[in-house]
Design goal:
Blueprint (H helix, E strand, L loop, with lengths): L1 H14 L7 H37 L2
């Protein structure tokens, strides 16, 4: 039981050393992730469309 108590004390001590982002940083980082996800989704969708057209025109006719 002493090991568990010591573990949580050490976890608490380490958590006080963490530098948490500000609310503004959190919003900016979240928007960056969402934006990059949309760009990647559009890019992959465009590639899928192009490959589909190539396959249907040249291989599946």
């Amino acid at each position: 039981m002493a090991n568990i108590t010591q573990f949580f004390r050490e976890v608490r001590a380490e958590m006080t050393k963490v530098v948490w982002p500000t609310q503004r940083q959190l919003v900016v980082y979240t928007l960056i992730v969402i934006g990059m996800s949309l760009v990647l989704a559009f890019f992959l969708g465009a590639l899928d469309y192009v490959f589909q057209k190539i396959l249907t025109r040249y291989l599946l006719t």
